[in-house]
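Quick illustration, no need to memorize.
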Amino acid sequence: MLLLLLVLATAVSLLPGVTAQFERTLDITECPVKFYGTNYTTLFVNITNGRAALCFKAPYVDGEPNDCLIINRTEADRGTTRVNTNSVTGSSNGFLNNLPTLTGTSTCFVRVIVRNNGNSNLFGDQQAVRFNLDESANPGERAFTLLNGVEMDSFNLTGSTPVFGDLSGCRYEEVFYSPNTTTCDSQGNFIHCNATAHLHAVPQINDYCVQGAICTVTGSTIIDYSDNSTSVDDRCAYTLFSNSSVHVVGVFKERRRKDVMFLDRVVMELLDYDYVIQLGPGVKVLVNNTYVNISSVFEEHEGLDLHQDQTGVTVTIYQSDYNITVFFNGDTAQILLTHPWMLAGSTETEKNITENFDGLCVNSSVALSVMKSNNFSSAGCEMQYSEPADESINCTTVTEHCQVLNGPDFTDCHTVIDPKPYIAACNYTLCHYPHVDGLRCEFLEAYAHACSLKQDHMLDDWRTDANCPAPQAFCNDTHCVDHEFCADGINGQINCFCRAIFASDYRSNDTLGDPAVCMDNTGSITLVGCLLEEKGFNYIDLHLNDDSCRGYRDMDHMVTFNFSDSNACGTVVTANDSVVLYKNTVTGLNTSEIVANFDKFHVNFSCYHNQPDVQSMSVRMKDNSVFQQVVSESWNYTLKMTAYKDAKHTQPVTLDREIQLNQRVWVELMTEGLDGNLVYLVTNSCWATNSSLPNEGLRYDLISDGCPSPVEPSVNVMYNGAAVSNSFSFNMFHFTGGSYEVYLHCKVQLCPNQSGDCQPSCGGAGRRRRRRAARSEYVDESPALISLSWSN
């Protein structure tokens, strides 16, 4: 695009009655100007009596047909010109911000300085101009363009703020056409000027203009080239248009209801170019499974044109004997076919279409099964569903609304597009589907756009009467996965909603995700991202009890929260006789209430482990009594450890009888050969291991420093340090994780009873102070170790 930059100033005023002149001819071959569709390589600059004229055909002469840019009342008397071949981006000069229809980058610009300051650039086929005025410029200055001597566009120059103008367009046989124009000229030529001002013209044939046939796919309805229609009731893909070079396929899916389908995306297979182009979901474009920047696509192919604007995406394929244009806005697809034998008034057109092309756009009466595209259909897509009618829908009101297409706002289109199939599609969908997702205006918009494709006439007034917004491509910046669709959320933003079939199980169970997954000491819960968005929640605002533990959203938009033994995330652990319970909560910013309105979120989930069932598990003693001869300094005595089933020590545990887990067992440590008047027996520690060696394997303390271990609350110690024998009791247990052998080890010492300080004090911190003092009085410096074992 060539950019023409003009800077106007009034630093020196002209004296009254003085006429100043400035003439200059500039060779702009290095940076040609495309003025309303015609390229020029020479610029004639003329300043006479305060009027600056920049012309392209010849120097300006008042009243002569010329292509010019005129600036009145400049009070200018001189100027300078130059060509700059430096690359200039539109954004760096404010062009893209002020003229959103521009694309690409300018590689040069022509600068015209009128009086003492000023500039022009070319972006592909597009042309733009910028006017810069000094603060001292005359506020009444006005600029306008002339096309063959006829005024085209006008610009009010009111101050120092730059003024931008788009001079883009196409010209065919000296007739100007605005961008986005498809029409027939007075000579019967077919004219197409696309959005970036690129001209495609087909010369007249037999004095008739080549007219296009329109196929519209909106909602679940396909309106073919003959204005007949059919509806799709499943989630498969179907061929819309096909020949040896081009295949166009429509893929249908459900949205909020399982029994109403919508066009989800359009796939084009271009066999001559080895391209597969996917339009949608929304207005996204994929080429060979890769998302693309459409401004740079197909530049090397003259026969392809891909364009995107605020209304949608358009792909045009120019063949030697026909053209096909596919438009898609995220909801509606329209396929325009033009061919030399498609002549105005020809009775052979329908026959020729049928003989040369295939697909539901050609003949909608063909069985859908014949036109199914297996390459783009998912498994099981043929299954159909039924749902109860939506009682909130008033079909009478719907009919009145759809009949607007028969009204005066659309009269200009009735001669070129039959409104009846569009009215039928409108009634069929809106009588079965709630009036959301922009559907209320979709069918009216589809008819108006079809009309604009058939003739160079845009209908605009109908939107005001129908209370419909200007056309706008939907979900351009929102990426939804396959089980989602794009729609307006309750928060006023574009969100991804769950498709009805995918979400049906969750909704029937009134859940937002899958059950918690529990393994060992970890737990996780997975919530469905689109269900969260339907409730108005953003997953990034949710967390566990510890607000640093946030959810992770995967590629399928499933959001997982988890905790583990290394990162508890605020997990609360409780236990009773049957289970150990791990409980956490997915919560939002406000959890004062349980689940609910849009600013509160509270989902509890938990994992549990069963406590051992003492009725169904048992152990068997491997030793019911052990003896050990101990020699300690001057003492020579026998130490015996025996297990009993009663507190009175009258029922020894026998080797042939099982003991239930959690059953109470008493263990007596008894000596022979000691004088009770001199020493007492102190059990310093007892512990269990899963190894016969006392210091290897797993360890579980029962007695520590002569007192019950805090890790095992069932332990009770009796007569410790009060006689030559003592005992303790505990509830029977075994190690988890497959360790079935249990060895009980006890370490004992002798304490002289004259000290009066042999009994451990098990009262917290004082216990440790007294035991350290007592040990200094022990005469036994070689404690005895004795072991007992059992298994399950």
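The chain has ten helices and 55 strands.
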